[in-house]
Amino acid sequence: MQRLEELRSWLASALPDQAFTLAPASADASFRRYFRVSFADGSPSRIVMDAPPEKEDSRPWLQVAELLRSAGAHVPEVLATDVERGFLLLSDLGSTTYLTALRGSESPTNELQHTAHLQHAANLYADALGTLAAIQCASRPGVLPDYDRSLLLREMMLFPEWYLSRHKGVTLSDADTATLHAVFERILAVNLDEPKVFVHRDYHSRNLMLLEPAAGLGANPGIIDFQDAVYGPITYDLASLFKDAYIRWDEDFILDLLVRYWETARKLGLPVRAEFSDFFRDFEWMGVQRHLKVLGIFARLHHRDGKDGYLADMPLVMDYLRRACKRYRELGPLLKLLNRIDPEDTRVGYTF
Q1: Domains 2-91 and 98-341 in one fold
Q2: How far apart are the two ends of the chain, measured CA to CA in Å?
Q3: pLDDT number for residue 320
Q4: What is residue 342's DSSP assignment?
Q5: Which fold, 2-91?
Q6: Mind spelling out the 3-state secondary structure of the chain?
Q7: pLDDT, tens digit, for every residue of 127-176?
Q8: Which of 10, 116, 229, 306 is exposed most, by the fewest CB atoms within 10 A?
Q9: 284 closest CA partner among 247, 248, 317, 239
Q10: Model confidence at 350, in pLDDT bands (50, 70, 90)?
Q11: Is the model's pTM score more than 0.85?
């Protein structure tokens, strides 16, 4: 409560002579909180970020926001800051995420509705890919932290520590540990061989906002939750986008969009592979690294932070992981380990 009162007091000084109310806007997997600021006179609402300085540093958010804005991406406008206390006042990109827009109020009930839904999704993803390409074209080394071997490996180690040990109660034998580490090394070799660009690191349906033209908010998508951006593998954000933990698409749909991105990226001079098959392999193996990390993070959010909502998303992430392991022989040892300690759940379906 004291923190909330500090926030109200700061807002009152940042918004003199304006009566306002606060309501929770959203929360993410960190210690940050977001509130929507509404005004009695009907002025456009704002978003205030509460990032406790002992747990969250607001400066990376501000740095990356400026980088993305300069690249042409639509990010919240910064209206007032108090970095020392961890308060930021931002423009409001609305409350409709891509996830909400894509799920819709009802599932398609016939072929015509299904086709229309896929076309709507394709249009939204085309916007997202266009913005992603613009960000990647603005990339340069030495600006953001490197997505290096140490960080990639540290993320994968969340899988044995939090998913296997803490969540599943599995104690790996020395042989299993050696197998897992050998697979990690192979994954790292593929990931680190990729060309590098700016990487949002969570470029998916919950962090892309659907902007309504009538509200004058600008072009889709609005982008949030970018403070952990790095300089790393070019397929990483594509894996986040199309191997989304929260919504699933048929592989033919994903392949079509990936091919379109790859063709456009080549025309723009982005450093994608010359052959699509090689580019797709990079994409798949990057997804494996991310799936291992996400399973560990979701388990940690549950067991350490008491955030149970992510448990329902684990089966889809595990299914992505299994499918990639089945496709590439070098990932066979990981698949065998998964099948033994975490038998396959065949109930995972498709979301349209």
Answers
A1: no
A2: 41
A3: 97
A4: S
A5: Phosphorylase Kinase; domain 1 (3.30.200)
A6: CHHHHHHHHHHHHHCCCCCEEEEEEEECCCCCEEEEEEECCCCCCEEEEECCCCCCCCHHHHHHHHHHHHCCCECCCEEEEECCCCEEEEECCCCCEHHHHHHCCCCCCCHHHHHHHHHHHHHHHHHHHHHHHHHHHCCCCCCCCECCHHHHHHHHCHHHHHHHHHHCCCCCCHHHHHHHHHHHHHHHHHHHCCCEEEECCCCCCCCEECCCHHHCCCCCCEECCCCCCEEEECCHHHHHHHCCCCCCCCHHHHHHHHHHHHHHHHHHCCCCCCCHHHHHHHHHHHHHHHHHHHHHHHHHHHHCCCCHHHHHHHHHHHHHHHHHHHHCHHHHHHHHHHHHHCCCCCCCCCCC
A7: 999 999 999 999 999 999 999 999 999 999 999 999 999 999 999 999 99
A8: 306
A9: 239
A10: very low
A11: yes
pLDDT, one tens digit per residue, over 86-114 is 999 999 999 999 999 998 744 666 777 77
DSSP 78: E
Q: Determine the length of the chain.
A: 352
pLDDT digit string, tens, across residues 300-349: 999 999 999 999 999 999 999 999 999 999 999 999 999 998 887 655 55
Measured distance CA(18)–CA(80) in Å, rounded: 15
Domain residue spans in the chain?
Answer: 2-91, 98-341
Decide if 33 contacts 27 (C-beta within 8 A).
Answer: yes
Tokens of 273: 């592979």
Q: Is residue 351 over pLDDT 50?
A: no
Looking at domain 98-341, its CATH architecture is Alpha-Beta Complex (3.90)
Share of the chain above pLDDT 70, in %: 93
Question: 150 is written with which tokens?
Answer: 């140490």
Torsions phi, psi of 286, nearest 5?
-65, -40
| Cβ count near 22 (within 10 Å) | 14
Q: Which residue has the tokens 């379906």?
A: 349
